[in-house]
Amino acid sequence: MKSFSNYLFIICRNQTYNQLKKIAVERNFNLPIEQHVNKGFDIQEEIVQVDHYRALIDHSIDKLPEQAKRVYLLSRHERLKHEEIAKKLNISSETVKKHIQYAVNFIKKDLDSKIDIVTLMILMSSLVIC
Questions:
Q1: Within 13 Å and on the Cβ side, how many CA atoms surround 111?
Q2: Using CA atoms, how far apart are residues 126 and 79, in angstroms rounded to an integer?
Q3: 3-state secondary structure 21-63
Q4: Roughly how many angstroms between the first and final C-alpha of the chain, as a whole number?
Q5: Long-range Cβ pairs for the range 102-110 (8 Å, 24+)
Q6: CA-to-CA distance for 60 and 116, rounded, in angstroms?
Q7: pLDDT digits (tens, 9 = 90+) for 57-116
Q8: Which 3 state secondary structure label does DSSP give 94?
Q9: Backbone torsions φ then ψ of 91, nearest 5 degrees
Q10: SS3 of 2, please?
Q11: What is the pLDDT of residue 8?
């Protein structure tokens, strides 16, 4: 009979530990979110900031040479693959790649002092949909 009571004790102890771990994980996950919300997060302010950044990027894109600009916009805005751009513009895929590299480096340099690099890369990413 003693071994059964030990068995029940171990089960209860393990269940208690598991619940405490679950509570700790939930608190650690929710705490940063709550702090951000309590900080007075203003979605309108964030939208205005993103719009400002996008305007800066668009201004830099306008400064690109015409072919690099066309290739960059087809890649990032129309989301075409290198092969599709090459076919559409009647140039090689390697030329497309070089134009995109040039455009990205040009935009990064042009905006270096205006936008931090992480924000810039996120906004320039083809994954961000406007």
A1: 28
A2: 7
A3: HHHHHHHHHHHHHHHHHHCCCCHHHHHHHHHHHHHHHHHHHHC
A4: 68
A5: 102/68, 103/61, 103/64, 103/68, 103/69, 103/71, 103/72, 104/72, 106/60, 106/63, 106/64, 106/68, 107/57, 107/60, 107/61, 107/64, 110/60, 110/63
A6: 15
A7: 899 999 999 999 999 999 988 989 999 999 999 999 999 999 999 999 998 888 887 777
A8: helix
A9: -135, 170
A10: helix
A11: 76
Residues 6 or more apart from 69 whose CB is under 8 A from it? 61, 62, 103
Label residues 42-68 b or e (16+ Cβ within 10 Å = b): eeeeeeeeeeebeebbeebbeebeeeb
- Read off the pTM: 0.59
CA distance linking residue 30 with residue 99, whole number of Å:
44
